[in-house]
Amino acid sequence: MNYVTNDTLNTYLRTLQPMYDGVLGEIQREAIAANVPIVPHETARLLSVLLELKKPRQILEIGTAVGFSAGLMSRYLQKGGSITTIDRFEVMLQDARKNIKRMGLENTIHILEGDAADILPTLEGPYDVIFLDAAKGQYGNFLPHLLRLLPVGGLLIVDDVLQGGSIAETRYSVPRRQRTIHKRMRQFLWDITHHPALETSIVPIGDGVALCYKKEEISNEVEGDIE
Ligand code: SAH
Hints:
binds S-adenosyl-L-homocysteine, alpha/beta, 227 residues, single chain, seven-stranded mixed beta sheet
């Protein structure tokens, strides 16, 4: 896991902002101890604020892992709301299912197993919040689908967009094997920051979080442009 900010600041932010209570907190602590990928605590706290403001009815998540962020986001759903979460890694999903049960959220969090590249085209939405936290090289391919599934007034939250800060380095100073992903992520960031229908901010906490608010309908022409 990469972080944009320095260790001292990360430790301070993680100590200052209380861990989550209840079973969610247990799942968070277990995942940290076992080195299972979950959103860093400071990013989780940002999600909490955004979702408290938004109070979504339907959430889409790409990247379930063990269900921590899905459990967290479920706290801010409107009554009767639900979360659809996608992951392709069966080993992780076994733990996710157990954790969802522990949190008593079997009727709230629905897992779709498979590659998001195959599943996203089949979804109809709308989802008022979409949390993208999966294979970084694919973000650009997912974007047209995510924008289609997001209503006007919806919020797209994307984790891990700054690649430990290396996104700001030139292409030639990143190791050769990282150049493709570097190029793709830069393109993705350009697209979301220049999209006429989006109000976007890139927040350098954790490994960088992009916030994209959809402020107007997207014509097919524009959607075609960013593909
Ligand atoms: N959001 C989780 C952490 C997700 S870790 C949390 O904070 O609790 C990233 C997950 O994305 C991994 O479990 C991985 O299997 C999944 N993933 C990566 N690329 C994917 C893809 N193309 N389709 C579906 N799942 C994917």
